[in-house]
Amino acid sequence: MTKLSFKAKLTISMLAAALLPYMIAMGILSFYGKSQIKEGLIKELTLQTASSAKEIGGYFGSLSAEFLSLTKFEIMDDALTEDIDKRIVTLLSSKKSDWKLDGELLCINTEGVIVASTMPTLLGSSIGNEVIIDGVSQFGALKLVGYKAFTIAFPIYASFEPTQSIGRLVMIFKSQNLASKLSVDDKKESFLYNRRSGEIISSVAVQYSGGTNESVYEDAQHITAVQRIESLPDWFVVTHSDKDSAFEVLDRFMLFLMIALLAGTILIVVASLLLSSKVIKPIQDLSAAAEAIGKEQAFDKRVPVESSDEIGVLSTLFNQMVENIEEALGALKAENSERLRLFVALIEMFKEITASKSEDETIETAILQMKLFWPEKQIRFFKGEEPDTQEDCFLLHGFDFEKEERTRLGHICTHGEERLNNEERQFFSSILEMVELQIERIGLWRKTEAASQAKSAFIANMSHELRTPLNSVIGFSQFLQSIDEFPVEYINIPKNIETAGRHLLSMINDILDMAKIESGKVEVFKEAIESRDIVAEVCAISSSLAHAKKISFSAEQEFGGQIFSDPKLLKQILLNLLSNAIKFTEEGSVMLIVKDAGKSVVFAVKDSGIGLSAEDISKLFTDFTQIENHLQKKYKGTGLGLSLCKKLALHLGGDVTIESEGIGKGSTAILSIPKDAE
Predict the structure, then answer these.
(1) Residues 6 or more apart from 537 whose CB is under 8 A from it?
(2) DSSP SS3 for 114
């Protein structure tokens, strides 16, 4: 028998040592690979299906909540009117665009007629026998639009009577809206399945006859995951993946391993004939070190250098490369840590500087915070003077609002072993710009506050100075009217003087009240009062004003209980609102309505006067503002009445709003105040 040579033995040994583990690994990979892939695929499908179901459920929930909020809008009251306000259509169209909705939004009145729609062709149509259930309904065919869709519907309740239904809002929701929520690719696909009807919603054609009792199951061809959608009863998200596609990567990898095995066999035979053990061992050491570094990030690993040949040079270069990588990673980590420290300190600096209340505090805070960036440097402020130093100095400016010009406040200088570089100087200058802005903001705030206080004091003083002679004029005019021998032909003169004087006195009183509110001197004294007594008092005064203008005046008191408020301020607000309504009503009626609104009481002053447009209503509560139109030019005043009422109402914890259907259609002023002490 022929003996095998050393090279042959080495070749056989290397083949056995290298190929046997390789073949065992291939066997293990083939045996366990598919089970691991299938387990991973099941987890992936389960997570993806649960995520899609949660996203779709959350999408339906949030969309339903937003859609429900539309029913609370006051413009929905227009669903009662025959000539419905186009704002509802505009609102629905806007919401459809905002939600990127593939479908339609409808407003249906109590008779089943579509009064507003994002599809113009549906306006005026009747829903007939169409069954639309409140909330989220099942997917089905709708005769209204001629296609299958979900519907979301909510009743609309009148804002003036929360228990009165005046219609419904309906959303027609196409299944295409869910396309982005369902994933479809070459290996797996998701779709919606209805357990009760067997309906399938998918962006591609699918065949599915499985059940929904198990969350994950498999058949000969597919692995399928099922997840119920919480907000859609009987609907499930189904995701299934083709097994062959899932195992395709493993099959290709096994083929690659077989080819690699064949190539490896050839290479080992050739290498064993060419290499000696001295060459193999350093390479093995190098490979082991590289693997440890790659998998464990063990940059302290080094390859032993046992020779000065090519393998030794390679080992030396490898060790040097690892050292360079370790140093670079350490420097990068330190740099990132320093950047994070500077970023946090910069945010803290901005917060501290913008919270300062004076120039000195701003400068002191800035210097203190800048020391966090440069703890090794001394930072000082030279106020006004020119620093006699070779340090890095930066000029700090302020702003003189009296002279309207920039002023020099001083210099901020740094001192250290090294001067600031260009980047540091630029950063330092940016911080000082923020300091200057804060100083200017403080000066502007002080100037604004002083101007506001001066204005309020001037108005109050001037109003007081005007009231004294004005009271004398009114008193003298009343005296002239009381003289028996006063010529009859001139009797209207003192009457006109008294009327004009009282009108002027009323305007001055409004200005005084507004000045008192702005200066914070309004005092509120709340106590338990009977609403009927308050209403009786204001009605007694207002009825005489209405009678003088020959218009009807009435009161409708649905609530007559006790409330906790300031009687003086409450009467002042109601008298202002009533006199305002009588003033702007030439014929017709003025009515005071008192209603119970749960925790609050509502006083509504309704008139048949000149009315207001929607644009005019937005300007009513601005100080010294009167609406400009042909119906109101003959009415004079300060423009403070409604603004004063609103501010006094806010002091009582309430509010004043105005409603009107348009010019010439009257208006309603609504005062709402809490019943109990807050």
Answers:
(1) 571
(2) strand
Residues 55-80: tens digit of each pLDDT: 888 888 888 888 888 888 877 776 66
* Res. 6: pLDDT tops 50: no
Reading the block at residue 637, the tokens are: 């005043």
641-651 vs 567-583: helix axis angle to the nearest 10? 150
Structure confidence by residue, pLDDT tens digits, 233-264:
788 888 878 777 766 666 777 777 778 777 77
- Residues 576-580: contacts with CB within 8 Å, 24+ apart? 576/641, 576/642, 576/644, 576/645, 577/603, 577/605, 577/645, 577/656, 577/669, 577/671, 578/538, 578/541, 578/542, 578/545, 578/605, 579/542, 579/545, 580/605, 580/641, 580/642, 580/669
Distance CA 585, CA 664 (A): 10
Compute the distance between CA of residue 189 and CA of residue 45 in angstroms, rounded to an integer: 10
Q: Which positions ≥6 away from 67 have C-beta within 8 Å?
A: 95, 152, 154, 169, 171
Q: What is the DSSP letter of 184?
A: B
Question: Residue 182: CA atoms inside 13 Å, Cβ hemisphere, count?
Answer: 24
Higher pLDDT, 552 or 33: 552
Question: Is the predicted pLDDT of residue 374 greater than 80, yes or no?
Answer: no
Alpha-carbon distance 575 to 509, whole Å?
14
Residue 631 has pLDDT above 50, yes or no: no
Determine the length of the chain.
678
What is d(CA 668, CA 82) in angstroms, rounded to the nearest whole number? 20
Q: Which residue segments constitute the domains of the chain, with CATH numbers given?
A: 49-255 (3.30.450.20), 524-674 (3.30.565.10)
What is the pLDDT, as a whole number, of residue 389? 65
The continuous run of DSSP H or E covering 299 comes out as none
* 604 SS3 class: strand
pTM for the whole structure? 0.36
Torsion of CA 170, 174, 180, 181, to 10 degrees: 70
Q: Computed from CA positions of residues 203, 238, 52, 46, in that sequence, does the dihedral angle turn out positive or negative?
A: negative
Q: Are 146 and 17 in contact (CB under 8 A)?
A: no
Across 426-574, the runs of DSSP E, i.e. the strands, are: 527-530, 552-557, 562-565
**229 φ/ψ angles, rounded to the nearest 5 degrees:** -90, 120
Contact predicate 372/345, CB 8 Å: yes
Confidence of residue 624 (pLDDT cuts 50, 70, 90): very low
Q: What is the distance between the alpha carbons of residues 51 and 540, in angstroms, rounded to a whole number?
A: 68
